[in-house]
Amino acid sequence: MYRSILAALTLFATVASSASAENDLSPFHVAGLSPVWVQVSDSATDGCWTNIGEVKTYAVDQLSLMGVETVDNANANSVLRIIVNGSRRADGCAGTIRFQVSDWVRWRELPAYVVLHYDSWMLSGYDKFNEDALDLTKKYTNEFFGNLPKE
């Protein structure tokens, strides 16, 4: 069983790497991922991120502009998670902003919840991550969802 899981992860990593290297997102399309549930996870402390609701609304707006339907409940086909970690240091806040798209797939006739795509940025020396969170939300939604075929 361990070998099967390892083989599956290796295959998935290989497919994801080759798709990413060639910018080929053909296994994914907007119709298959929609509707999307945008979730935000705030693990930033010491006031490093304060516009959490604004970032979620902005992500929903960006997806809507691209024709991606969104819902705010578990009836979604997929989930876009925006995860912010960070804390204050002497020179400002340091941490990461990560985006991941997850969905249910079938693997050997069994359902599996997997991360289909992710990207992450490290930040340091900022008073707050607010502007960066908005900028990177736009960058991620445009680069991932914006490059997907409609069907």
Provide keyphrases for this structure.
151 residues; alpha/beta; Rossmann fold; five-stranded mixed sheet; 5 strands; elongated
Can you walk through the features of this model?
- The structure is a single chain.
- The protein has 151 residues and is α/β, with parallel strands linked by helices.
- The chain has a single domain, classed as Rossmann fold, CATH 3.40.50.
- The protein is 35% helix and 37% strand.
- It is built from four helices and five strands; from the N terminus they run ααβαββββα.
- The protein has helices at 2-21, 30-33, 52-65, 130-144, and strands at residues 36-44, 70-71, 78-89, 92-107, 110-126.
- A five-stranded mixed sheet has the order 2-1-3-4-5, covered by helices on one side.
- Strand 4 and strand 5 form a beta hairpin.
- Helix 3 (52-65) runs parallel beside helix 4.
- The longest helix has 20 residues, at 2-21.
- It is elongated and about 50 Å long.
- It starts with a helix and ends in a 7-residue tail after the last helix.
- Residues 1-26 have low confidence and may be disordered.
